[in-house]
Amino acid sequence: VEQDKIRNFCIIAHIDHGKSTLADRFIQYSHIVEDRQFREQMLDSMDIERERGITIKSQTVNLPYTAEDGNTYVFNLVDTPGHVDFSYEVSRAIYSCEGALLLIDATQGVEAQTLANMYLALEHDLEILPVINKIDLPAADIEGVKEQIEHELGLDPDDAVCISAKTGKNVEELFEHIVKKIPAPSGDLEAAPKALIFDSHYDPYRGVVLYVRVFEGEIKEGDTMLLMSSGASYEIEEVGHLRLKGIPQKSLRAGEIGYVIAGVKTIRDIRVGDTITIKEKPASQPLPGFKEVKPVVYSSIFPVDSNQYEELGKALEKLVLNDASLVYEKTSSVALGFGFKCGFLGLLHLEVVQERLEREFDLAVVFTAPSVQYRITQKDGTIITIETPDEYPDVTKIEKVEEPYIKAIIITPNEYVGGIMNLCMEKRGVQTSLLYLDKKRVELIYEMPLAEVLFDFYDRLKSISRGYASFDYDLIGLRETNLVKLDILVNGKPVDALSQLVFKDNAASRARAICKKLREEIPRHQFKIPIQGAVGSQIIARETISALRKDVTAKCYGGDITRKRKLLEKQKEGKKRMKMVGDVEVPQRAFLSALKAS
Ligand code: GTP
């Protein structure tokens, strides 16, 4: 394909405004899959994405389109996630595109991530095409949304294309718009090659697959590729286009997006954001790459079966290939043995990592209480930063503790303002602004501790506003706080994996919630099990699991040996998901659900 026939663009939007549905329409119109193979949410290839109905990973697809001018164009479309935890995926997608379709739900209007994602696209000088979606719905308010496009986004509302991604209405018109409005890529075809690795994944048959955007020159099969940050080199086995599956090509040229397979043995050589060049004709300077992501939540992961520690390490290494925002290092715990301390972009990100470890790598894992990063000034003047309760120093040595604060931006229909203000207050928020965007919509800005939004803030915001309020945040620095370390004792023994750092006033209620949850989750044993919450030596919450009276197999009288065996086997199966804490068997899921209790 000639460079001037390529259009690279992403679809960005607030969550649920219809990105994946629109991507489906693009795929259908281009006929790259047969109708009988077509399924909804084509680009959400992970099971978790399909079950939850959300996009977690950006996905690129190469689509041919024959335009009204008679020419055949190639669209490289990148579907991006909408949830705030995955905005890093959006920011990377943006690097490989010249344009962005900014999708806005005609019944919801401009929301928090509409703005946040638009700013990301503007930072990279993308051509932004506003698209109003869901016009088939009776509640669609096209004129109202056009006004918002003009006043809140500062874009030209006359440029907006009104579509229904569901019925396909006006989608072809949008294709023509893309051809005309989004600039073709530029880049010298003869120059020393430069390609940006924007994503990667591990394929059990082919090894590491790199997803690249070529900015300069050409890379082809048989070339020796050079990874510019590590200097490692590999022979390229295959390059190609991404059409849901890889379509091998002779080469990838400046302006194109595609994949590269090069028999990479050492996964650690690969870094998303790195530049590939060719040994025979090396570029002198790498591309700028991506901004480093900083995790906001930390938690440690342990294998339920301690023998799987090494396997867990290998799984994380492979997962990081496909999830560059995940960071990890080795750690250990008294209760749980060897594991990894990980940094995540949010609680949903943490849950996704847990599910992927279980589904893609068949590993049962336990997570410790998610925590933010605290800065502690000690009496001797030294300053430390900590992310886990076990790093918490002796209280007598502490001079002051600071915790990260965020600026939370909430956009909501006005009838929910009261409820949301109460929620923010409960979460130690301080209001800094309340602005009527129009007659019905209000923008609230709060400063509040990041730790408070980690747990159930987002869910509660959604339930208070019946799903209508939207939320985005920025970190704004550290503020002094009153922190304590809450320990949980099971059968008299502190379980370090359940300890957490909490704001002093929240300690008692958090402790009660956790103890209650554990009482529900831990099965009865032959003996009575006290579960306690403690700060220092002071017990602040207590629950008791009463003892089991009978042996479960006692019911099966002597003769029925198969039944007895079945029952024992079933128990054994269940035990695989149990973690021994002293004499007590704690189910794996108890850890996360206890920590989510509040
Ligand atoms: P995330 O990837 O999770 O951010 O969501 P998304 O933006 O990809 O939204 P998705 O395509 O999953 O659509 C969300 C919901 O809106 C789904 O239930 C779609 O069926 C519905 N939807 C999308 N487009 C339209 C439309 O044009 N009309 C109607 N009526 N519903 C639509």
From TrEMBL:
Superkingdom, taxonomy of origin: Bacteria
The reaction(s) this protein catalyses: GTP + H2O = GDP + phosphate + H(+)
One Pfam family, short name: GTP_EFTU
Topology term for the membrane: Peripheral membrane protein
Cited CDD domains: EF4_II, EF4_III, LepA, lepA_C
Tr-type G domain mapped to chain residues: 4-186
EC numbers for this chain: 3.6.5.n1
UniProt key word Cell membrane: yes
Keyword Membrane included in the entry's annotation: yes
Keywords, alphabetical: Cell membrane, Elongation factor, GTP-binding, Hydrolase, Membrane, Nucleotide-binding, Protein biosynthesis
Family, similarity comment: Belongs to the TRAFAC class translation factor GTPase superfamily. Classic translation factor GTPase family. LepA subfamily.
Alphabetical list of PANTHER family matching this protein: TRANSLATION FACTOR GUF1 HOMOLOG, CHLOROPLASTIC, TRANSLATION FACTOR GUF1-RELATED
Protein's UniProt name: Elongation factor 4
